[in-house]
Amino acid sequence: MLDQPIARIRNLRVQFCTTGGLAGAVEDLSFDLHAGETLCIVGESGSGKSVTSLALMRLIEFSGAEITDGRILFDRKSGAEVDLARAGSDLMRQIRGNEIGMIFQEPMTALNPVFTIGRQLSEGLRHHMGLSRKEAWARAIEALRDVRLPEPERRMVQFPHQLSGGMRQRVVIAMALACAPRLLIADEPTTALDVTTQAEILALMDRLKRESGTAVMFITHDMAVVAQIADRVVVMEQGRKVEEGTVAEIFEAPQHPYTKTLLAAVPRLGDMRGKPLPERIDVAERSSHPPVPVRGTDAPLLRVQNLTTRFPIRGGFLRRIVSNVHAVEDVSFTLMRGRTLSLVGESGCGKSSVGRSILRLVDPLSGSVDLDGTDVMGLDAHNLREARRHMQMVFQDPFASLDPQMPVKDQVAEPLRNFCTHRGDALWDRVATLFDRVDLPRSFMARFPHELSGGQRQRIAIARALALNPKLIVADEAVSALDVSVQAQVLNLMLELQADLGLSYLFISHDMAVVERMSHDVGVMYLGRIVELGPRDAVFETPAHPYTKALLSAVPIADPRKRATRSPTFAPIPSPIHPVGYRPEPSRYDEVAPGHFVLHHDIPLS
């Protein structure tokens, strides 16, 4: 690490222009960035982390804000020093993407939906590095291979909407790393990624900074990731720096109360080991003890048998089906009343497709879905609509699942209106009760989604899902985009609702620590199949399948003394695309312990 910093932020102030005047987002912020160093900036939503990153790239001006004070001194590759806070637009265009790269949090908004992945990835290489079209295309394929994206040649000709969320995030990371920038700003880069891909991306960024001396400014709410990669940490609260120190100082001897609160909210793998599940939780005990799952019942609510979902790929002049994506292949499980079954696995393994197939948001190819005695697969459109009163979904991105032009009270009331369950004053009384249930003030009822934080929007999505008193809720990455303290609040809320209402959750996630805390049973998915299924303690404490062991070994630990001593190595994920007529082998399982099943036949891990 060099002594001379390559970026120096001094007394930075960023303010937003609002109808009520200027509102401060960042106040009097100062820190240095050294070559070959990873500086992590942590804090809750609204603390000013992302605003700081956008200010360094001078993108904040496109968001209705301005830098009103301070300096951002940056040493360019040529050795010249420039104050980015006052640099002209032409100079910033030369610096962005070439000398300062940025990985954005939301990949769908960072990618242009009308251009192919290849065009977007090769554009920066041609502009900044002067490569020919052919050279840029070859370098772009190599960049996708570096971030472990399967079949990079095929991905180059696809559009963003044809990729999963995790795959899109890997494309954005590849774009930021392609030109080997002098400073890399990573704004929540691994939020949408599973643990194995996250481990490889973190190792890739670590290798980049060691080999090229790149400085990394890493913005995250995942304290376990901070413990694994950070050299120094800056803690922000309400736009101000409240603490700065080495990673060891922050984790082992935090000084500020806010830092201590952040560290206390981190879910840690192994926290649930040996904890018995209670029959019920008394209301009086909830304030003094973090909620844990109640025991639930042994009565089946949802039975899924041999579920198979495939997506056709068309090609040729006549647009015939030439192959199929085997998204879900011969999946079977049973979910009991009042219990939580979690599906975990890497991006693209089929876990979200399972949830959507059960709700018939995607029509499966074959299999059976029985919800409390109702054959969901055999229902016509009218009866399926009625059945959906008993099964609801909470999506990953609450802002995308809410209508930006409707007050949130109308969105919570919409299911009640659609099924004519409440009218007049009774309807609004029910909506107010739902706001109480998810711990939101009734004064928020008239607000719009953009006036709420991410955690508050997710609570609105949960309230809407609860409106019709469903028996089953499918939570698809419902807390992955939330910072640790808000994530803890939403998880506690879901556990309390399960204890009070007897809800059953199909919980889809890539966060193993969250899954351990929420689950009664766990199913591990790989290439569309469940490779291991069993009680939570059996899967986490005595994993039997090699893939489950790989997932658990890749989970970062919120302790800088337990950093991984070597870079993880994972085999490339095989393609789930097979030609028409391909007949996969049916799933057969060995019962290695009571209720603990492991896939019998081998599936390729490479």
UniProtKB/TrEMBL annotation:
It comes from the Bacteria. It comes from Poseidonocella pacifica. Its EC number is 7.4.2.10. InterPro entries: AAA+_ATPase (IPR003593), ABC_transp_ATP-bind (IPR050319), ABC_transporter-like_ATP-bd (IPR003439), ABC_transporter-like_CS (IPR017871), Oligopep_ABC_C (IPR013563), P-loop_NTPase (IPR027417). GO terms for biological process: peptide transport; transmembrane transport. Belongs to the ABC transporter superfamily. Glutathione importer (TC 3.A.1.5.11) family. It is a peripheral membrane protein. SUPFAM superfamilies: P-loop containing nucleoside triphosphate hydrolases (SSF52540). Gene3D superfamilies: P-loop containing nucleotide triphosphate hydrolases (3.40.50.300). It is an enzyme of class 7 (translocase). This is Glutathione import ATP-binding protein GsiA. It is found in: Cell inner membrane. Keywords: ATP-binding, Cell inner membrane, Cell membrane, Hydrolase, Membrane, Nucleotide-binding, Repeat, Translocase, Transport. Part of the ABC transporter complex GsiABCD involved in glutathione import. Responsible for energy coupling to the transport system. It catalyses: glutathione(out) + ATP + H2O = glutathione(in) + ADP + phosphate + H(+). The complex is composed of two ATP-binding proteins (GsiA), two transmembrane proteins (GsiC and GsiD) and a solute-binding protein (GsiB). Residues 9-263, 302-552 form the ABC transporter domain. PROSITE patterns: ABC_TRANSPORTER_1, ABC_TRANSPORTER_2. One of its GO terms (cellular component) is plasma membrane. GO terms for molecular function: ATP binding; ATP hydrolysis activity.
